Records
---
Amino acid sequence: MTSPDIAPAMAPESLWLEQAYRVRFDEATPDGLVKTSALMGYVGDVAWLHSEVLGFPRAWYRERGLAWVVRAIDVALAEPIHDGDELRVSTRIAGFRRVMCRRQSELRAVDGTRTGDVSVDWAMTDGRAPIRIPADFTSIPGIDLAPFSPTRVDLPPSPEGTVERPLVPRLRELDPQGHVNNAIYLDWMDEAVAASSGADAVRAAARRYRLEYLRSAGPGAALTSTAWRDGAGWAWRLADDVGDLVRGRLDHPGETPRAER
């Protein structure tokens, strides 16, 4: 929820935007710590606010039949964030590919302490397939046009004996496009890891998530959620009878992550 008494703060060139958010009671877990999905909600909201500042409100997308979808996230958290805490969440565009754009966000406490960093890879779509990003975006004066390597998460096959837990998306977990909201997958991942003896891992103050979204899930989908210990971290897979929809990893500073293939 946006703090009503704090207006968005912009850099003069409007290429960066910061917004204040207060962690609501319903956005925290029983231990009083913010849900990771709530943080991604803030990151998504400030990205929309910035799109409006740059001249691309929701109506602009509707008129052209275009939308952004999340293809991958990289979330590195450094400090605990509690119910009632106020966060300053920033966003900026940090590069382009033909059909993709990367945004970088910083999470800071009101005293300036950096509590996290988030990278989100967005793809532009016309509702049927990814399409080339219109020049309206890449021609913005001063915009960062640097290329980037998309975040990928490669996983080995699930170990024999790993428990597959059934999942069916609920109505409140869907976004306006009728798909499971990208932040919800973090809740599902945390639940799967915690149920696989990783409860301490999902509540550690310092932790890093990487998720790659391959396909979207809709209402009534029959899904399986699988998590297992993999090297120094945790692996997570969400699949249906066709194959993987989302692949994720959870690692911690000081531990050596499993090498990506």
Note: The chain has a mean pLDDT of 91.
---
Amino acid sequence: MDRKAYKLPLVKNSLSRWACPSCMKGFLRVKAGTFHAEETKESKKAHGHEAWDLDWIEYVYSCLLECTNPACKDTVSNSGTGSVGFDVEYDENGFPSQTGEDFFTPKHFSPHLKIFLCPKGTPENVSEEIEKSFLLFFSDAPSAANHVRIALEDLLTHLKINRYEVKGKSRTFLALHRRIELLPARYKHLQDLFFAVKWLGNAGSHSDKVVTKDDVLDVYEIMEEILQDLFVKKTKRVKNLAKQINKTKGPAKSKKKA
């Protein structure tokens, strides 16, 4: 996962580092003739202020992005906001001049970007919640984090961790924290990762918590590691075990007897 790519602004005439959501091989660039930006009404009004400067400018923009992979060339719509980044340059006489460049912050993509790929074998309801999170990543970081929390709940259910406990005739749903504590020994090495996803997901549910894009990228990185461990490394282990069994034409010699 290229964390930096999803924090960089869009520069109109530069190639982005966003992977195409269709092929995940090419990168996205602005399609010629489709970019349009306008300064907002409030931004235009501010020009009359005596303290006005370039960094007061605010834009809204929209464009089409095109995949650079010749075998794909899919199109993605994109919109968001913009501002001016400026610097001071000095001429040969030492006199300063201010130069500015427009930078644009994406808010919406259709289809949405895929920040990481769920490995084969990931339960469908888990991957669906992660896709919902990707959809919201650029516009609503707290909600994006919360959808990963929901994905974690679904993952625990897939791992057959109880959702509730029965006492007498009453049934009480278990808190996520308690469900993570119930992970069996074979998943204990992932317990700290599960708790980290829970805490970041919880923060996305509370309005008094500030959740940033960096926080959401953290939870993506952790969730990706969990899924890789469960559905990729496990597959390799099973394949290796099958090879051993086939080689001995019976029980694997390395297998410990109970």
Note: Residues 1-111 form one domain.
